[in-house]
Design goal:
The protein has 132 residues and is mainly β. It has one domain (3-130). Helices cover 8% and strands 32% of the residues. It contains 2 helices and 6 strands. The radius of gyration is 16 Å and the shape is globular. 19% of the residues are buried.
């Protein structure tokens, strides 16, 4: 590792690339979620908003090799979960890491967050949100 970079705190080495995903869908984007927690009264599966979410953006986050993360997955997700929202796990699909869906009381997806255990704690690797 470059000596200049080794001395910087890992949190300062986060590089974010904004990727824009396009396209609308007639059906819910989040399919086959296996809830770990969620809206008890909602019977609809998690779904992106039906209007105003034709385009979504995804931030991909890259960390330094020795980055320190949160002690638990819940702590890593906490800053992405507003009051009144809950978290539902989206089933892992081929060629895509499992994500945690942050949903409101109607199971409308606010954002999708991917986290991983980096060896020194839990880190967020991507966040997808409506662009509109």
């Amino acid at each position: 590792m470059n000596a200049r970079l080794a001395g910087l705190p890992a949190t300062l080495l986060v590089a974010t690339v904004l990727l824009v995903g396009c396209g609308g869908s007639d059906g819910p984007v989040a399919k086959d979620p296996a809830p770990t927690s969620g809206s008890a009264g909602s019977r609809l599966p998690p779904h992106w908003p039906s209007t105003g979410c034709d385009t979504r953006s995804t931030s991909q986050i890259d960390y330094a090799m020795d980055a320190r993360g949160s002690r638990t997955r819940e702590e890593a997700l906490a800053r992405y979960v507003p009051d009144g929202a809950s978290v539902v796990r989206e089933t892992k699909r081929a060629h895509r890491e499992a994500r945690w869906l942050v949903v409101d009381q109607d199971n409308v997806i606010i954002r999708a967050v991917a986290v991983f255990d980096g060896g020194n704690g839990w880190l967020v690797s991507s966040v997808e949100e409506c662009s509109g």
